[in-house]
Prior knowledge:
Blueprint: H1 2-23, E1 42-47, H2 55-70, E2 75-80, H3 88-97, E3 102-106, H4 107-110, H5 129-137, H6 139-146, E4 154-169, H7 176-179, E5 184-186, H8 190-198, E6 203-205, H9 211-217, E7 222-226, H10 227-232, E8 241-243, E9 249-257, H11 258-263, H12 266-300, E10 304-306, H13 310-319, H14 321-331, H15 333-343
Parallel strand pairs: 1-2, 1-3, 5-6, 5-7, 8-10
Antiparallel strand pairs: 3-9, 4-7, 4-8, 4-9
Amino acid sequence: MKKILVLLLMLALCLPVTGIAAGKKDPLAAWQPEFDPSGAKYTYILSNISHPVIEGVAAGYRIRDKVWEQTNGQIYVDYRPLAQLGGEKDVISKLKLGAVQGMLSSSVAAANVADRLGIVNLPYVIDTFDKLDTFRNDPELWQPFSEGALSRGIYVADFTGYGPYGWATTTPVETLAAAKGVNFRIAQAPVNMDIYKAWNLKFTVMPWPDVPQALQTGVISGLDHTAIVCNITKKFNIAKNFTELNYAQGLFVHLINKRWLDKLPADLRATFLKVITEESAATREATRKQYEAQVAKAKEAGVQFYQLSDADISELKKLAKPVLEKWGKKVGPDYLAKVRAKLGS
């Protein structure tokens, strides 16, 4: 009887711990595959740092399922969002080595892979949804970009997005003069640093995970990001103002290790790339709708939206000319000139 009582007591003590562990919610539970991937001949590990509630991130799961279906279970896209494989700089290193085969890289980080990929971050060049579609669908503009990182052993298959960039701030910014009083967090990216230096604005380069605490403590008072991301990730809870600058489109650039891609049989490689193209195009359309929906939700929640005057925008473009000249040399001056001419930028 004593032994039974002891066992019952031990069980009672263990149950709460087990219950808490079991009660933890998997943030990706809704996106688990509805098939058994163990029989796949080829595995493609695909990384991303963000949450699939963003359409541009969820695309990875849609690619996973469609690739599985159209290759009859021969290729499994093992998608790892939410920085499961580490920060973007670390994953880029793994991608070059082949330890990771694919990456939906933020466009700001992609410039660290190859200079040419920085063209999508340049101010007021590919700054609208329509210009983005034109850029992607024009072979003369797209091919140099898709092949821009081949010297690094990386192929650019396509891209999805997360909306146009602006300023989320703790105080209203309705003029360029007001922006001078803000300390903006910007990404760890060379193009962005050059832009903010040219604009003569105060900025802090900071990893994304550090942003919430920095906002709460006042280390930074503004974010250079998109309304989609700021609303979904609750940054508007603190930074309750958004200036619609619209100087660039936030992208997730689909990078693939070229050695892995070349090892696929030709028919599977063609199917694999075709699915990525189709799903990326569909996702860009979904991103337009998500942008409108997230802006509407933010406004309903009390976030104030502002636009700079035409004169202030003209001043930003004027100040950014040295950045375009510097990066024109990096991406190719003729290529940049062709992009700007065709897009009317």
